[in-house]
Amino acid sequence: MEIWSLTGVVTVLFVFYKFIKRLGNTIPVLELLLLIAGLQWIIGPIIEYNTPSFHDRYSMYVVEPIYMQYVVPAYLVFVCSILFIISKYSNLIISINSFIRHKKLAYVLLVVGLLSDFLGPILPSALSFFFYLLSNFKFVGAIILFFSNDKRLRIIFYFSILYLFYNSLQNALFHDFILWSIFFYMFWAIKYKPSIRTILYTIILGVLFLITLQSIKAAYRTEIWKGYSGNKIELFLGLVLDSIFSEGLFAEISEVNVSDTSIGNNVRLNQGWIISSIMDNIPQKQDFLEGETISNAIISSIFPRFLLPDKETAGGKKNFELFTGLQLGTNTSMGISIVGESYGNFGVTYGIVFMSFWGAFLALIWNRLFNFFLDNLVYLAFIPLIFLQVIKAETELVVVLNHLFKSLIVVFLFIFIYTKYSFNKSY
């Protein structure tokens, strides 16, 4: 194994250790972000280099030493800048007493979230993202109720997971279900303080579920989007059982059955094929962007569309084709990841420097949030909503900043209104 590859593996294992050590004491969201990034930027590519999928599109476009000499140092500075800056609050032990007496806040959040579910689809599309954020308030409320002394109210927490799963089955999109389930587990761990062994068992079960989900997702999505009218739960469970008992969880994918909608598990894990395609395309066929998409992302996230009608649209098709030189279908969108975008704008050296600044920026946001919420830790339940898109390793800067800034505005506006009208009296 190349020295940079080995360094990357050790760093990812260190991040994993930090993540499981902090589960049960605090909310290791940034550690989760680093872990997901390490798996997709480093572990997935190493697997592909050593056991290639033999699919031209999803293979690595540059050799391992060239890829790892950029990505591993970029990941290292990203990890170091985040873990160093958040160290002040990373070991803060969150008490369940911070959540117990806030039923009223939870009820308000549930009502706002459920109303937004109904209002969002019928209101102008310009408000859709705003109501998407508000609709997620119900999950924040469910987290708070989970700590209630009333056992009946805790049912709402578990019902929320089922509600997410039901919605995922309806539209065949599972991202929100997976992310919120992980966030829910973090708060569950704060309450029940699971042992390291229990955490590891849970992670293994989660990984097996994700592998199974990935193996059937394309087939399930095809049926649903064709207008399937039968029982979606039965369809899903049938595909799961077929995947386990007919194909096996770890069945290798062949050249024959690989397509844009049905690809192997490591191809889905491996963000490296996109990052390496950027390194293959820039600067050989496309000049470095020199910060163009970075500045566009910052401007787009700050100014609303009615002030800047031509601002960048969140979504990966345009940047993907520009950075990689590859073409996507009309309705297909893929993210280039921030580490890929960093290289495409600045090259190896300054791309690594940018990743250190990006890590520091996220860590400072995290510290400011913790500092603000110290007087009322119940508001930490909003952290998952604020970082919902940030933790995705495949997303590019315009998507991340757009969600981060707008969610911060919505959350703090709600807290201001809630506090101003004295709704914050706990009981």
Descriptive overview:
- This protein has 427 residues and is mostly helical.
- 68% of the residues lie in helices and 0% in strands.
- The protein contains 19 helices and no strands.
- It is globular and about 60 Å long.
Give the SSE map.
Blueprint: H1 3-22, H2 29-50, H3 64-85, H4 87-90, H5 97-100, H6 103-119, H7 128-135, H8 137-146, H9 151-171, H10 175-192, H11 196-225, H12 232-247, H13 265-269, H14 272-281, H15 292-302, H16 317-324, H17 338-373, H18 383-386, H19 397-420
Quick overview:
The chain is mostly helical and about 425 residues long. The protein contains 19 helices and no strands.
From the alpha carbons, calculate the radius of gyration and give it in angstroms: 22 Å
Structural class: mainly alpha
CA distance, first residue to last residue: 58 Å
General shape: globular
Strand tally, please? Answer: 0
Spell the H/E element sequence. HHHHHHHHHHHHHHHHHHH
Share of residues in helices: 55-70%
Q: List segments where confidence is low: pLDDT < 50 over at least 5 consecutive residues.
A: 248-263
The tally of helices reads 19
Strand residue percentage: under 5%
The major sheet is characterized as: none
Whole-number average pLDDT?
Answer: 85
